């Protein structure tokens, strides 16, 4: 009996036809298919240094402006001040991620780099090179901000609002986890709206800063906290939470993504990127596949053992 051709389905990630026999996961970042080279790693390091510097410089500059005003006399949070700082960080991240995501991925954060390494989005050597560049850029951005603007550098991450060290730690954990998960799902997992991922990432960071600035300074990024601490020579006893918190948040987001992947999340609600034509084509292919399966089953019964 002549074998029937295998049906093809639309990929849940790209919307392109793919064979159901192919069980390999979709490629997340194109850099993984390229051979590692010192030139590519150097370009990644340069891009992450410049991108992280620009992101943090404009964020620090906005924070310096916001903190130039005296705090509220009754000790309550100055909401205008907090929104200004959150907006400075969110807008700066959006602009610079959009500029650099085609060069390096626009990571700008050791916690994000760790997450992409864990979920298979970055090679190990590239990750180490990028983290070093990010930490150096954080210190450079803080130094330039301190030199350009009058007054002491007022952009450090410190506990406030009565938050304890434990509370500060878990605030950093959960805010970082939310940011990292958004980055994984919108940037590392390729789909039709990946080019808009910088907008969603910036909004996510803006929301996290709205919550975190008053209580912890809203770090979510060891490079963001290290730079001002080095420039001011100020390392409070609880400074470790700005390393452990974001890294634990990164691990939490990566673990949840891995769980979703294990449970084959793409099969739960497929076709969200489809337009009407692709949806119709997909439905026809599914019906065709069901017909072939039914025909083969009936033929097997007639033929007997």
Automatic annotation (TrEMBL):
Membrane topology per record: Multi-pass membrane protein
Gene Ontology molecular function terms on file: water channel activity
Places the protein is found: Membrane
Pfam families given in the database record: MIP
GO cellular component assignments: plasma membrane
Reactions catalysed: H2O(in) = H2O(out)
Major subcellular site: membrane
Keywords from the UniProt entry: Glycoprotein, Membrane, Repeat, Transmembrane, Transmembrane helix, Transport
Family listed: Belongs to the MIP/aquaporin (TC 1.A.8) family.
Protein name per UniProt: Aquaporin-like protein
Originating species: Lasiosphaeris hirsuta
């Amino acid at each position: 009996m002549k074998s029937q051709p295998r049906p093809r389905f639309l990929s849940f990630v790209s919307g392109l036809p793919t064979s159901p026999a192919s069980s390999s996961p979709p490629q997340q970042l194109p850099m993984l298919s390229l051979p590692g080279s010192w030139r590519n790693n150097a370009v990644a390091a340069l891009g992450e240094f410049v991108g992280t510097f620009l992101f943090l410089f404009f964020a620090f500059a906005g924070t310096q402006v916001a903190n130039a005003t005296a705090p509220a006399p009754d000790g309550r949070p100055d909401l205008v001040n907090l929104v200004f700082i959150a907006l400075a960080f969110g807008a700066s991240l959006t602009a610079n991620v959009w500029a650099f995501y085609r060069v390096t991925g626009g990571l700008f954060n050791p916690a994000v780099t760790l997450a992409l390494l864990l979920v298979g989005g970055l090679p190990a050597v590239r990750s180490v090179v990028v983290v070093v560049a990010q930490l150096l850029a954080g210190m450079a951005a803080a130094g330039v901000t301190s030199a350009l603007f009058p007054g002491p550098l007022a952009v450090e991450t410190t506990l406030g609002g009565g938050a304890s060290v434990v509370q500060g730690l878990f605030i950093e954990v959960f805010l970082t986890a939310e940011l990292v998960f958004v980055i994984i799902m919108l940037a590392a997992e390729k789909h039709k709206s990946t080019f808009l991922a910088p907008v969603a990432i910036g909004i996510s960071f803006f929301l996290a800063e709205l919550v975190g600035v008053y209580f912890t300074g809203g770090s979510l990024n060891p490079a963001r906290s290290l730079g001002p601490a080095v420039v001011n020579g100020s390392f409070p006893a609880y400074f470790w939470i700005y390393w452990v918190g974001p890294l634990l948040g990164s691990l939490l987001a990566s673990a949840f993504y891995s769980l979703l992947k294990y449970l084959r999340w793409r099969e739960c609600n497929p076709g969200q990127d489809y337009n009407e034509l692709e949806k119709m084509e997909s439905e026809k292919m599914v019906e065709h596949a069901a017909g072939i399966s039914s025909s083969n089953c009936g033929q097997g019964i007639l033929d007997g053992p």
